[in-house]
Amino acid sequence: MNYIKKILKFALPYKRFAILNIIANVFYALFGTLAMVSLMPMINILFNETEKSYTKPSFETLGDYFNKENIIEYFNFFVTNKLEVDGPSATLALMVIIIISLFLLKNFFNYMGLYYITYLRNGMLKDLRNKIYEKTLRLPIAFFSEKRKGDIIARISGDVNEVQNSFLSILELIVKEPLTIIFAIIAMFLTSVELTIFVFLFIPISGFIISAIGKQLKKHSENVQKEQGIFLSTLEETLGGMKIIKGFNSETNFISKFNQSTYRFFQFSNQLAHRQNLASPTSEFLGIVTIAVLLWFGGSMVLIDKTLSGGAFIGFMALAYQILTPAKAISKAAYSVKRGNAAAERVLEILETKSPLDDKPNALVKEHFEKEIKLSNVSFKYDDELVLKNFSITVPKGKSIALVGQSGSGKSTIANLVTRFYDVTEGSITVDGEDIRNMTKHSLRNLVGLVTQDSILFNDTIKNNISIGKENATDDEVIEALKVANAWEFVKNLPLGIHTNIGDSGNKLSGGQKQRLSIARAVLKSPPIMVLDEATSALDTESERLVQVALENMMKNRTSIIIAHRLSTIQNADEIVVLHKGKIVEQGTHQDLIAKKGVYNKLVDMQSFE
């Protein structure tokens, strides 16, 4: 299983917990076996079958301590002396205490094993989720055009859980259950072949107690479920707002937000798991205490009252103490590993996906925009058909270029290429003569402000939405950006002002209000280059007028690429480029193109008629 090696690297930071888990499982198996072995001398005492011995054996060499005959002889000497000095009742009581102590130690180490593996399990889960989330943010936009949001969410939640469970099953398969079986078989063969047969024929009865206690633990899962909803919501918003996050270089901010949520989930999961892990050893120990009481009274009936047959008591004890079924656990673990294989493949598919947009080694960090943006013979295709064909324009610093044309003509594609959400198929895009493919994406996007047709906002306060591109912005800076964006007039009347939560996707606001907040976000970032992708096309006339004023305020002294559907918004552009099926068909100022009475003039007439 090759995937195990790849998943195991996430366990390395928690290897100390794995070692402690293995140590605890060794002691669990050892004391579990000793607890079972201690029942046989008890039975011998009950039925007065202990061989009388009045001579204490000598242990002169190390081998004497591991000699079966010496051990049995010493035990017989101890029991004989105890029976004659204290009587059968006191001897029986001592044996009961020994048995309870052994089962207590067994369950203590069982709990400790589960305690340590909880940190390994939830730590792996946290790190794996964080890594997938970070990788998701680093992948190009093109990756998500081929994947559904639900599928991504399923991989980061359900599939990661399945991988985690599979890994745990392997750990239990290798250490805990086999050791329990091996220790038990060796001990039983050394004592009685018949007892070994009882081990394999045992029907576990403690499962009913464990199940009953487990049902009462449901209330503790509330925090875990709630936090899971929070980080899944963050993930969904991330996938929906990918352009804004990337365009404003806010990947680090969102990664931090997601990591904080998964850390809280990690803590809540540990608390819940400790309670769940305590259920099994506690219920077993309580069951053993109950049986020990029965042993006291039943033993008295056998040794003193003589009212219970030895055969019936032996059968009862065998059924009562054979609780664990490690063979069944191994079978379940093997099945879980098979299920985890498919889940691991889906998780690793994301983690191992190579991004074609990764920065080159020693990529240029571009800090200032000085001269021009130039698109030279750019061709681009999403699938097979070219969307842009030998497209060339130059945008000098401080000038505004408007791109118009019918839907599907390639206007928005240019915005995606300039911000390097995609790479050109042919040709080049340069900033001050430097190919953007040779620059770091972070530095390129620091130079660009993006306002999209869809106002992508997050379920947070107005301030936090606007300050995505400038996380340390003061309240005064946010308010000034809102004034430039013509948005302060409605924000100041909100109950908490800039600290008002605007709901999921900003749905507490109107379309025009949301768009003006998007503009304020770009204003606060204060980039030298603005890309406006049909920023007013989804607005009514009144909202459009307000937004248009905001856009004009924002574009002052800035280099702008304006993608417009409504031509009334771009009449003051320094140059208008008319596209048709990915090619430039007209180019000039508004007055020049009207005078030509060509494609642009027809588009204006059509919108005027509308």
UniProtKB/TrEMBL annotation:
Membrane-spanning residues: 20-47, 92-117, 167-189, 195-213, 285-304
Record-annotated ABC transmembrane type-1 domain positions: 19-339
Family matches, as InterPro entries: AAA+_ATPase (IPR003593), ABC1_TM_dom (IPR011527), ABC1_TM_sf (IPR036640), ABC_transporter-like_ATP-bd (IPR003439), ABC_transporter-like_CS (IPR017871), P-loop_NTPase (IPR027417), Type_1_exporter (IPR039421)
GO molecular function ontology, one term from the record: ATP binding
SUPFAM superfamilies: ABC transporter transmembrane region, P-loop containing nucleoside triphosphate hydrolases
Keyword ATP-binding included in the entry's annotation: yes
Coiled coil: none
Keywords associated with the record: ATP-binding, Membrane, Nucleotide-binding, Transmembrane, Transmembrane helix
Segments forming domain ABC transporter: 373-606
PROSITE patterns xrefs: ABC_TM1F (PS50929), ABC_TRANSPORTER_1 (PS00211), ABC_TRANSPORTER_2 (PS50893)
Membrane topology classification: Multi-pass membrane protein
Superkingdom, taxonomy of origin: Bacteria
Main location: membrane
Protein localization: Cell membrane
Protein name according to UniProt: ABC transporter ATP-binding protein
